[in-house]
Amino acid sequence: MVDVTPKEPTHRRAIARCRVHMAADTALLVARGAIAKGDVIAVARVAGIQAAKRTPDLIPLCHPLLVGSVFVNFEIADTWIEIEAQVETVDRTGVEMEAMTACSVAALTIYDMCKSADRSMVIGDLVLWEKTGGKSGTYRRSELAED
Fold it and tell me: What is the pLDDT of residue 134?
């Protein structure tokens, strides 16, 4: 692990995004709340929050952090669901991995809950969208880099 002991705690935030690509019928079922396993968005939100808090258990050299807040939001389109996770802390290292883990696990939860309707779903487009705080300052993904 990197030694972060000498660093001063600062306010840090990270935003990550990913998408679950799916058939239009599947996206419609999710939007209508008609998936047999239940409310896909609510369950995926809780899974993402839980995953952010458990990131050091999943990624071997990731520091345990006191996660101050986690927000997981969704946009349902015709053939995909976009997940955005925002994680904040006041600590000695950033929360990029927590935000990306939240997105990943929320996406896997969507897949799990919808697989009976559509096994052809694809999880992709996982990116760090923004991070603030710390010595390296602010990073914002360019809108041009989105495609």
Answer: 87
Decide if 81 contacts 20 (C-beta within 8 A).
yes
How far separated are the first and last CA of the chain, in Å rounded? 34
In this structure, what DSSP letter does residue 120 have? Answer: T
The total of other beta-carbon atoms located within 10 Å of residue 22's CB is 26
Catalytic residue list contains 112: yes
Q: Which of 39, 78, 91, 112 is catalytic?
A: 112
CA-wise closest residue to 53 among 72, 74, 81, 73: 72
CA distance 124 to 16: 12
Separation of alpha carbons 123 and 125, rounded Å: 7
> pTM here?
0.94
Write out pLDDT tens, residues 97-116.
999 999 999 999 999 999 99
Alpha helix (H) residue ranges in the chain: 24-32, 40-53, 55-58, 96-114
For 2-61, what is each residue's pLDDT tens digit?
999 988 899 999 999 999 999 999 999 999 999 999 999 999 999 999 999 999 999 999
